[in-house]
Amino acid sequence: MKHLAAYLLLTLGGNNSPSADDVKGVLGSVGIEADEDRLDKLISELEGKNLQELIAEGSGKLASVPSGGGGGGGGAGPAATGGGDAAAAAEEKPAKEEEKEESDEDMGFGLFD
Predict the structure, then answer these.
(1) pLDDT computed for residue 76 by the predictor
(2) For labelling, which of 13, 49, 64, 76 has a CA lying 20 to 30 Å from the CA of 4?
(3) 3-state helix, strand, coil in the chain (%, to 5)
(4) What is the 8-class DSSP label of residue 50?
C-alpha cells in the first residue's frame, strides 16, 4: 500500500510514469524502506496504463460488490392513531407528572434534600 501511495503522489506531482527509483526516493524521504519485489511488481503492472482510467474502472467494480451488513434498524415507536388523540395524550402526560411531584412535596421530604 505504501508503494502505491508513493506512486500516486508522484503522479499527482506531475510525473506520469514514475520509476522504481522515484518511488524509493519518496519512501526514503520519510524513512520507509521499499520492498523491491512489491515495488517491481507494482511498476510492471502499472507501466503504460492511465491511472485515471484504472481508478474509474475500479470504482465501477466496487459499486457492484455488496457491502451491506446484516444489522437491523432500530425499532420504531408506536404509531399514533389520530392527530387529535396524540395531542390529547401529550397534554395528559405532563399533568400526571405534575401530580406525582406534588405528592412528593406533601410528604415533607425530597429525593435530594
Answers:
(1) 64
(2) 64
(3) 60, 0, 40
(4) -
Separation CA 2–CA 11 (nearest Å): 14
Please name the amino acid found at residue 43. Answer: I
Residue pair 61/53 in contact by the 8 Å Cβ criterion: no
Distance in angstroms (rounded) separating the CA atoms of residues 81 and 84? 9
Which tens digit of pLDDT belongs to each residue from 50-98?
A: 888 888 888 888 888 887 766 556 666 666 555 555 555 555 555 555 5
Whose grid coordinates read 455488496?
66
CA distances from 10 to 21, 22, 39, 43 (A): 11, 8, 14, 13
Mean pLDDT (the chain) is 77
Cell (9 digits) for 86: 396524540
What is the structure's pLDDT at 3? 92
